[in-house]
Amino acid sequence: MRKILFGIVGPSGSGKSTYVAYARKKTGFGEIISTTTRSPRKGEVNGKDYHFVSQEEFKNIDMIEVDEYSGQFYGTAQKDLDNAYLQSDCAFMVITYEGAQSLQKLFKERHLDIDVITVFVHTPIEELEKRMIHRGDDMDKIKERIENIKKRKEYDNLYKTDYVFQADIGLSLEETCQQFTNFINKIGGKL
Fold first, then answer.
1. 191 located within any domain
2. pLDDT band for position 191 (50/70/90)?
3. Fewer CB within 10 Å of terminal CB in the chain, N or C?
4. What percent of the chain is modeled with pLDDT above 90?
């Protein structure tokens, strides 16, 4: 049976991690947690949001894909891929668009029965800034992230992904998370 990896793509602050955490509880899908060399943000938990490691540790992990973002490295460890499908044939991964493309290519090269379905989480850039401020990010870091989003042309990815989830910023967080979960279930029903 083919497995599905929902590659959740979008700029920093778009809600990717929050939506995935909620949807996992409701669906029972697995998750591939990325490894990164960046420091944890306020409220992030090692092993839940990311595996936070030093540059040296990162070099010694068996990575199947690596991407650089804002001067930090992010990657997918082979062991995390293996563990993601222990409970379900579907898994989530918060990842860059380029990372999702790398995984798709790798899975084909290795003849793995995993389909990568990319979903762009679309949130207006003004809302991203508000969310970063709300979560307590440093203003200089916020400015840097917004500039990086523009420089990397991250919003262009919404035209490249398989699906686009338009977050309704007028809804409560719980309602938006449920809306995301319904959206994923609808996609899964089409496959």
1. no
2. low
3. N
4. 59
Q: Is residue 106 part of a domain?
A: yes
Beta partners for 113? none
Range of the domain at 96: 3-184
Distance CA 184, CA 188 (A): 6
Does residue 189 lie in a domain region?
A: no
Strands of the sheet with 35-36, listed across from one edge: 51-52, 35-36, 72-77, 63-69
Total structural domains in the chain?
1
pLDDT exceeds 70 at position 136: yes
| CATH number of the domain encompassing residue 116 | 3.40.50.300
> DSSP letter string over the chain?
--EEEEEEE--TTSSHHHHHHHHHHHH--EEPPPEESSPPPTT--BTTTBEE--HHHHHTS-EEEEEEETTEEEEEEHHHHHHHTSS-SEEEEE--HHHHHHHHHHHHHTT--EEEEEEEEE--HHHHHHHHHHTT--HHHHHHHHHHHHHTTGGGGGGTSSEEEE--TTS-HHHHHHHHHHHHHHHHHH-
